[in-house]
Amino acid sequence: MKNLWVLLLLVLPMHVLAQDEIKPFYGQELSFGINSPGIDIRLESDEKVQQVRGEELFWNIAYKIKLTPEQTMRMGINFNILPAASQKYWVRGLNAGYQYQFNSPSMRWQWFIGGDVVFLYDVTYTGETIDTLNPVALVEREWEIGLGPVAGVQFRISPRFSVTSEVGCYGAFRNSRISTDEIPPLEQSSSNDFTFNFHRLFSVGFGYHFGAFTPAPARDEAPDEPDNE
Question: What does the DSSP 8-state code read for residue 157?
Answer without folding.
Answer: S
